[in-house]
Amino acid sequence: MIKVAIVGALGKMGSEVVKMTLNSPEFELVCAVDKNNIGTNVAEDIAIEGDIELALLKSKPDVVVDFTQPSSIFENIKTYLNLKTKAVIGTTGLSEDQILEIEKMSKENNTGIIIAPNFSIGAILMMKFAREASKYFSNAEIIEYHHNQKKDAPSGTSIKTAQLMIENNSDFKLGNCAETENIQGSRGGEFIQDNKGHIQIHSVRMPGFVASQEVIFGSDGQVLKIHHDTINRACYMSGVALAIKNVFNSNSFIYGLENIL
Question: Is 225 a catalytic residue?
Answer without folding.
Answer: no
